[in-house]
Amino acid sequence: MPRVLILDGLWNKTLAAVRALGRRGFHVAVGEWTRFATALFSNYCSKRLIYPSPKETPAKFLDWLENELRKNHYDVLMPMEFTTQTLITSQTQRLSKYCRIPFHNVDLALRLHNKAFLMKYAREKGFDIPKTFIIDDLNQLEALAEELPFPVVIKPQMSSGARGIKYVNAKADFIKQYKNVHRQYEFPIVQEFIPDGGDSMGVCLLLNNDSEVRASFVYKRLREYPVRGGPSTLRVSIKRDDVRYIAESLLRYFKWTGVAHIEFRVDPRDGTPKLLEINPRFWGSLQLAINSGVDFPYLLYKLAMDGDIDPVTEYKTGVMCRWIIPGDILHFIMNPNRFHMSPGFFNFKIKDDLLSFRDPLPVIGRLSSVLTLLYNKEMQDIFMRR
């Protein structure tokens, strides 16, 4: 029986991977730093593990992980969060003697995840991006404020979802807002705000050891939370060869191996899809890809074990999937057009990341995770920065 250890059990994408592999008969061990974690409650979780926090106590976590890998046989190790992934890949020499770790080296992952690096590279190579401004000295803020095309978006160089993002409509507010973000995320980038009216899309890819594409999937965001821009709460699978080709070209150039997620937004002023970021890791909407016919966790496992796999590029389009607890609920509450959305919020025929009659208990895990807000600083940080 194939044996996989999946880390970061708190997240919906982890649950998607656990269910996908568990349904194929895998022995799936799942770990997290809190027992109130969504994937730990899944019927497909064969073994539940609680470990030291990779963020708060990385050395203790690595000692725990090495001990678990040494004592128990696993074929493949799958960290699902970027912090855990980069910590593990920084210790590949130490850990890879126990199992396969099918993720690229930490240095390249950190570079691709850095928005300043990516925007500089994309601009030099002629890729379409939003107008982007990068500084390395707070004394440059006065001059920068004079040339910005307001409204603008302030984005941390290294973050995910909506963490640290601020929208600024007027020059008078810019310097204060920039410094507020800078206190937590040093020297964020500044970008023009792309007006509403253009599609937001994600391209999901898996590349082999020769940086050849072995799986691809494209989806469109239909709803997000925060409403103005954040993680998607409702998405639909689509075909879009232009953004797929751009994403593939970028990752091939950097000789990437493994999974990655690339985000684009179409500028309604000229119809051009503009590159926003690369997430060199698993992504939050993983369940949609699996529902549409591209089982990335299983394909990554096969790639790790067999060395290569046949390409998987065909999938069902028009498939919808949403993140209802709490994402789409919060979108509904905060959207002033909540009763005019299409599809409507109360369309319960749409499949969900979490809800499943065959595997119902993860809902308890998701709801119980709220309890940790009462006493755990790390969980408070996760939720407050979403």
Question: What does the model show?
Answer:
This protein is of the alpha/beta class and 386 residues long. The protein is built from 14 helices and 15 strands. The protein has three domains: 110 residues, 3-Layer(aba) Sandwich (Rossmann fold); 62 residues, Dna Ligase, domain 1; 153 residues, 2-Layer Sandwich (D-amino Acid Aminotransferase, Chain A, domain 1), CATH 3.30.470.20. A seven-stranded mixed beta sheet has the order 13-12-9-10-11-14-15, with helices on both faces. Strands 3-2-1-4 form a four-stranded parallel beta sheet, covered by helices on one side. It has a four-stranded antiparallel beta sheet with strand order 5-8-6-7, with helices on both faces. A hairpin with a 7-residue loop joins strand 10 and strand 11. It is globular, with a radius of gyration of 20 Å. The relative contact order is 0.14.
| Number of E strands | 15
So what's the oligomer here? single chain
How far apart are the termini? 38 Å
Going by CATH, the architecture of the largest domain would be 2-Layer Sandwich
In CATH, the homologous superfamily of the largest domain goes by the name ATP-grasp fold, B domain
How large, in whole angstroms, is the Cα Rg? 20 Å
**Numbering strands along the chain, what is their spatial order in the largest sheet?**
13-12-9-10-11-14-15
- Tell me the major beta sheet: 7 strands, mixed
Instruction: Report the CATH topology name of the largest domain.
Output: D-amino Acid Aminotransferase, Chain A, domain 1
The coarse silhouette is globular
Q: Helix- and strand-based class?
A: alpha/beta
- Indicate the mean pLDDT: 93
Strand content: 15-25%
Low-pLDDT ranges: none
Q: Summarize the helix and strand pattern as letters.
A: EHEEHEHHHHEHEEHEEEEHEEHHEHEHH
Q: Helix tally?
A: 14
Q: How many distinct folded domains?
A: 3
CATH class assignment of the largest domain: Alpha Beta
Helix content: 25-40%
